[in-house]
Amino acid sequence: MMQDFIYKLEKLGPFENHPILAVAVSGGADSLALTLLAHEYAKEKSGKIIALTVDHKLREGSSKEAHELNELLTKLGIEHHILTWDRNSNISSNIQSKARNSRYQLLTDFCNKHQILHLLVGHHKNDQIETFMMRLERGSGVSGLASMNDINYLNKVRILRPLLNTPPEKLRNYLKERKISWAEDPSNLNEKFTRIKFRMMLKNYDDLSLDRIFNTSITMRRANYSIKKNTYAQMVKLLKIYKEGYATIDIKLLLAIAQEESFRILSDVLTTIGGSEYPPRYENIQRLYDKINSGSFRAHTLGSCKLIIKNKLLLVYKETKKDLYQE
């Protein structure tokens, strides 16, 4: 297990000669196994890890579990910090998404404050399969079906997922061999959450079917990389973004390139100009493209942006209460 982990982690490098790694740990089996593996790796490199737990205080007993985890990690010689979400009491909707955003904000803020470049998170093979299936149901395009990357950049921090190819059973067995117990989050059984619904559904799949889904997600990731590379090459030819906060797209060139590349350009521009956290749904991008291609396009609103045609260019600007380009 250790040698396999070292191989996977070092593929996500480079790292410093004596690396300092932050590890997000909830106390569940996956993140706890990651913490112990990273600790052994860092010791071999004369480095260290710093384990970080975010207490969202969304359920009774979360603070007690965080402090019990602190006792365990301290006994194992691992530095551990508990970060608390100072939640606005008025937040009542979409709490899971907001908790996730706050978690990464707290984690990366800590890393920046302590000059830590790398943050390891414990997503594993089944998490990747669940993500793929959730996005497939939503009708995502290639970018969405590529699912989670093993390397992301957020708030000047490298988010690393060295366990994406690792089955969760392997992580639990690793802890059992070391007689380390872990906490079970009761929300992992609550089927009101979409991910948990898919998790329960996938329990009915055999290993071969799960492997095929996982391999498809890898294929989509490769395809996404190729499309992204080609898209960037096309962007420099047909897209201009202005410091005033709007963009123009050459419609003739947009319609001349591969559709998937056109979809990606429209999605990226709308996300950038609109300032949205997530891109518009793939089906909405398709409809927008079809309107432009048919010649019936006049004006459109999507992703907090207004789109109009002026002088054979698609003008994209942030939607406001007063239309700045009314004629």
Automatic annotation (TrEMBL):
One of its GO terms (biological process) is tRNA processing. InterPro entries: Rossmann-like_a/b/a_fold, TilS/TtcA_N, tRNA_Ile_lys_synt, tRNA_Ile_lys_synt_N. Residues 22-199 form the tRNA(Ile)-lysidine/2-thiocytidine synthase N-terminal domain. Keywords: ATP-binding, Ligase, Nucleotide-binding, tRNA processing. Pfam families: ATP_bind_3. GO terms for molecular function: ATP binding; tRNA(Ile)-lysidine synthase activity. SUPFAM superfamilies: Adenine nucleotide alpha hydrolases-like (SSF52402). It catalyses: cytidine(34) in tRNA(Ile2) + L-lysine + ATP = lysidine(34) in tRNA(Ile2) + AMP + diphosphate + H(+). Its EC number is 6.3.4.19. It is an enzyme of class 6 (ligase). It comes from the Bacteria. PANTHER family: TRNA(ILE)-LYSIDINE SYNTHASE-RELATED (PTHR43033:SF1). This is tRNA(Ile)-lysidine synthetase. It comes from Candidatus Arcanibacter lacustris. The lineage of its organism: Bacteria, Pseudomonadati, Pseudomonadota, Alphaproteobacteria, Rickettsiales.
